[in-house]
Amino acid sequence: MSPENVNCLPESDVKLTLGLPGSGRIPSKPGMKRGFLETVDLNLELDQEVAAKPPAAKAQVVGWPPVRSFRKNAMKSCKYVKVAVDGAPYLRKVDLEIYSSYQELLNALEEMFSCLTIWNYLNERKIMDNVNGMEYVPTYEDKDGDWMLVGDVPWKMFVESCKRLRLMKSSEAIGLAPRTPSKNSSTS
Amino acid sequence: MIMESKRKKESPSSAGSTQFPDEVLERVLAFLTSHKDRSSVSLVCKDWYNAERWSRTHVFIGNCYSVSPEILARRFPNIRSVTLKGKPRFSDFNLVPQNWGADIHAWLVPFADKYPFLEELRLKRMTVSDESLEYLAANFQNFKVLSLLSCDGFSTDGLAAIATHSKNLTELDIQENGVEDRSGSWLSCFPESFTSLEVLNFASMSAEVNFDALERLVCRCKSLKVLKVNKSISLEQLQKLLTRAPQLVELGTGSFSQELTTRQYAELESAFNNCKNIHTLSGLWEATALYLPVLYPACANLTFLNLSYTALQGGDLAKLLVHCPRLQRLWVLDTVEDKGLEAVGSYCPLLEELRVFPADPFDEEIIHGVTEEGFVAVSFGCRRLHYVLYFCRQMTNAAVATIVQNCPDFTHFRLCIMNPGQPDYLTNEPMDEAFGAVVKTCTKLQRLSVSGLLTDLTFEYIGKYAKNLETLSVAFAGSSGRGMECVLGGCPKLRKLEIRDCPFGNEALLSGLEKYESMRSLWMSACNVTMNGCRQLARKMPRLNVEVMKEDGSDDSQADKVYVYRTVAGPRRDAPPSVLTL
User: Fold this and answer.
1) Cβ separation of A67 and B358 shorter than 8 Å?
2) Does B581 touch chain A (CB under 8 A)?
3) Size of interface A-B (CB pairs under 8 A)
4) What residues have CB less than 8 Å from B15, skipping those under 6 apart?
5) Cβ–Cβ gap B286/A98 under 8 Å
6) ipTM of the assembly?
7) What distance in Å separates residue B24's CA from the closest CA in chain A?
8) Is B151 exposed, middle or buried (0-12, 13-18, 19+ CB in 10 A)?
9) Which string of DSSP letters, residue by residue, matches B488-521?
10) pTM for the whole thing?
11) Tell me: the pLDDT tens digits for B295-327?
């Protein structure tokens, strides 16, 4: 189920895209620091599709930052996935390899985004924002590019297929089809 | 040391040095180990030159092309230990073509003839083939120490040859090389009769080794002091190794994330508890907060903790550092964020060296990492800090000024603001004043890496104030060639200058004509230097090698990458077609 079918920000808007202020395509996230992107002298292609990744002008300069190849490759071998939280300006990264269950992962996410608490009901995994009462549902994008609810498949299978995580606002997760409750018990 | 020998020389008689037996002088000079001291000694007079050359057993060659093995052997007949560095440092970042050179074999063959009793070989950024390793194993009977750092060209087959023929080997240190890791069976090649190993580091190799063979090796090598294993070794296996070698002084663990039973956990903790001599800890691949506590008993005497392959959060780092009050050197990933660095400032007052590496340097999205706040927090808590390598995404001039005010003893200041040409994020000004503060305050500064938006002013400061600077790295900086001229006209002790992507042209290059002979090397890439400029340099300075590497599809007149170095060996004959010697 692709994100465009639900009433939520398309995936590309969760990432920063580049363009002039005021352009209708920029997601409005007031107060978000973008200083460092704006200072780079780029040839922006402003008529690019919103869904496209940031333009190649921000492409990696050879050998910069000066990190040794060995270190680059060593870090790649971890199963790092990005975690986005709707409404938060920064993404985080977690290494899925270091957890052995969904519970451990959700606990870690709780620590990382300390304003949220995990509200774990049987067969339901919801995350609640203490401050403003928003409910978040943990979702992930799998290898096929589909957005799924976290917790449906066995843990190992999830680690294999998960490409990124997103804590989606409950209100926007309507389109994601929940699995039947009976299958969930095997995944904790 | 030199003063002592001079005194000894003058006391028996007040006459000249000719009355002092050579053998005695050599004996005295044998106590000199620093190669700088020895160079000074050799310049005193002819007798001292000769005495020094006969008594020297270790030689350090910072650029393998600055001298030839023949010249070396002619001057120093009794060498037992050689340290060689090859490729320019920017080869670590893929800026140097693969087949550039620095092949050790050209040295090994003359060494087999002139130094058959060679004991130690330490190589950095050299190309080493399996054939060379086999040759080494076969031709040097006394061989004791092999250390390969950032080398390439060999596979585990070559290591198997070394292991098989080990009789007197005490040290095998394989670090961060481009090794073709075919299998881990090389470790099983050490003979059962082999017991002399003191240092074994294979942490950066990936293939699984035979654990039985490793355990037996550790068991029979009673003098083993340094053991750094690779990721394939589990926690359970580590526990067994620690039980066999509680005398270890440096430990590199394997993977730190196995699921352990309560009993296994207790056994592991107990094993660490018995290791009272560990002062260096590394490895810790995939370590999680769950298992780090087993380390606590071993942390009391820890002076060097390398967590640079562990994606730790700040809170977990803090919990660990509470147990490491004696820490002097710490390497971490920027996943610890500023919160983790605040803990460093709080719990490690003896810290002298901090390196913060980026967990995700190439991601175009904003991953948080560390900021100026973390660095400042460390500087308030760790006043002895003198070595820093800091990768960050934002910095301010004010923060750096505070940092060096707190820690004026910096000898190595390497700041990498990862976005090229980024200004002070609060004031939007260039970062000139930051580095100005560094060079003005830190009079002992030997090594500096600059970054961020920088004008010529930065280089004016450097040229004017950095009197002890030996190594300078510059990228995406400067407004004009004047910047480079300031540095070349200033820094009297400059030895290595590496520059990339700066608007420095021929005038700047040629302003350093005389300077280059007192330096080890100059690297300039993606600057405004032309072939003509390089030719002029080569013509005027015959004792320099001027090498140009051209990129595909670039203008004929542009000198894309230039490497200039002093040498007594003349132009090299092993350069590949992509490297032009002018």
Assistant:
1) yes
2) no
3) 117
4) none
5) yes
6) 0.88
7) 47
8) buried
9) HHS-TT--EEEEES---BHHHHHTTTTGGGGSSE
10) 0.79
11) 999 999 999 999 999 989 999 999 999 999 999
